[in-house]
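quick one, two chains, predict together pls
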Amino acid sequence: MMGLSLSRILAVLAKEFTQLVRDRLTYAMIIGIPVLQLLLFGYAINTDPKHLPTAVLVQDQGDFSRSVIASLRNSQYFDIVASVGTPAELNRLIERGSVQFAITIPGDFTRKVVRGENPQLLVEADASDPAATGPAVSALNMLPQYALRHDLKGPLAPSGTARKPFEVVVQDRYNPENVTAYNIVPGLVATILTMTLVMMTALAMTREVERGTMETLLATPLRPIEVMVGKLTPFVLVGVVQATLIIGMARILFGVPMAGGWPALILGLFLFIVGSLALGFLVSTVARNQLQAMQMSFFYFLPSILLSGFLFPFRGMPQWAQWLGSLLPVTYMLRVVRGAMLKGVGIAGSFQSLAALTLFMLIVASLAVRAYRTTLD
Amino acid sequence: MTLAIDVSGLNKSFGGRRVVKDVALKIEQGHITGFLGPNGSGKTTTLRMLCGLLTPDSGKGTVLGLDFPSEAEAIKRQTGYMTQRFSLYEDLTIEENLAFIARVYSLDRVSSRVDQALDKLGLHDRRKQLAGQLSGGWKQRLALAAATLHEPRLLLLDEPTAGVDPQARRDFWDEIHALSDTGITVLVSTHYMDEAERCHDIAYIFNGDLIARGTAAELINQSRLVTYEAEGPRADRLARDLGGKPGIEMVSPFGPALHVSGTDRGALEKAIEPFRRQPWQWVEVEPSLEDVFIHLMHAQGSNRLGEAA
């Protein structure tokens, strides 16, 4: 009587298989998650980011500055996307995050090289993400030896082999000590909110359906927008509490600086919280039960973490991955929160990201209201 | 005679399957109408269309004097709907559930209405208890209280007493009659014959077709069914011998006795003749509602087959 029965085990096994095959979403997860992870980690993620956008301010009239720029390009780490005329313009580009590096070639650069006066090349790096700038900065150290080797021949050849014709001064801005936590911890605000809020609302609505209470709600005169506002508002509060908690802990435990971008941060958080909640609401109108809602949310989390620039440098990803990442609200929230905390970027400076978040919120909220069925059809 | 519900041409399909077919329904104000029919015949779908939970594919008429279905929102406000499955919040207390319902209907004097409802239910002492902890019978009474909180003029009840013990069912029906006495119109679906008999009239739906309408007595008369009851030791065992004989349309156990019915009296009597002997006693009886319904089902079913062939 105590013995194991193979036929009973087979009965359970056959039942599990049948149920597994019928559950299409679980099926999609079994296949989809590994494939997605493999593709993203394999192709999109690159811890040696190249082609970083760089702005140059050339104050020198000589030929050597051109050679320096050419060899910057040849290193593949730097894409010269802008050539500006004033230090103020240069500053604005790096502050807004349009460029990762701002390089100033001082006046008299060529002349000083010729005279052997060892001029300085100033490189300002946006070090708010140390992982993004690290390899490029290493490449910079090699620059003086190679950049001018074709120009400095004959009489101009450097006297000593060890002597460099010019010096590269790298100035890390925003995170001068290259503390990884300064980059990751503010990023957590965006990712934690994504994970909790989307799932919370997605579950809250499907729970009504699953427990049958949706029928009661629908039989009452409640309107979709009333249900949505009533459902989401408590979770906005939850989001605010979470954000406050994370930012508070980031300051106290990790000493993350707050450079002063409060207005952009608060506006960004509000847009992002409401948008994420509306997305959860949208998920719940599609999902038939809580399990499906969880699974769907998971499919959203994965790219949100991997493609947004949270863990890996956004600019290190290939173009298609950057393009996909640009569709995710987390990407913009990360820029807002890092900009605000590390650089003190205000609303004007984060305008693009804030506009993207607004657009996201409006689209998702209107889709959710439209998808919400007032009947059981 | 004022009609609370007067709709016709009601149709609804799900995924290409017609669940409700050209149903026309007239229900007199203040009446309790029993909505009967086998599982999956379209009762729930019809009720849901009437209260605006489902959009009919076609159909028009009036409900409570309002245009159906264009004024569905206004109909909703004056209709109380009780779902088949308990659909209040199990993780809210009895009082919280009632207060929530009162608020979403924008009722005035919320707390006094809730108090009144609790008094009527006799749940005043237990008002802080979670609704999920109530027994099946109490849950149904709470659901009825919630469905009537906004003083609807029409009550749609979807198998309100399924799985409820006999005493609780009786209490529940006493309440329905009390509500009906105040002028509320009630359409209630059920599988129980004793409940069908307590209705003022009956609508019988089968496979999406409304096939019979009238009081219990009318339905029995209309069926033109002749029923004999056989009593005696092991009378129910006769079923096997009688079933399928010409003239016998239906053999159904009735307690320990057996009901044998047919529409052709002569043929029926001829068929049972060989069995009119000891130890069985045969007596002609009035067919029960159940006999009539099973007969309706079979008749309709074979019509269907005939149409198909």
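Chain B is about 35% helix and 30% strand.
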